[in-house]
Amino acid sequence: MKVTSPAVGGIVISKQGRDKGRYYLIVGIEAGGLIAVTDGNFKKLATPKKKNIKHLHLLPDKAESIALKIIEGKQVFDTEVYSALKNYNYPKPDGEALDGNENKQA
User: Fold this and answer.
1) Of 29, 42, 64, 74, which has the maximum CB count within 10 A?
2) What is the reported pTM?
3) Is 7 helix (H, G, I), strand (E, B) or coil?
4) What are the φ/ψ torsions at residue 39 (nearest 5 degrees)?
């Protein structure tokens, strides 16, 4: 499914710039085709990065709980955004166990 219009809470990938390949969460849509994005780590909610819509690849995924909080005007924490994007920006290697313990041989 191809997403054609940005929505608050949507997940995007940067296609241009020094942050190319990073995943972000849309926190605002501004006039002139600018999208305010944050990742909860390098770009905080207090100072979201403004990127041109042409420089973003929109994904069909959405952080519904965070989007609802933003729309209702409730407080959202950077840690919530970071946690929502953690699997995108920092994927686990295929061989790693789910509990974080490596297979130890005696």
Assistant:
1) 29
2) 0.81
3) coil
4) -120, 0
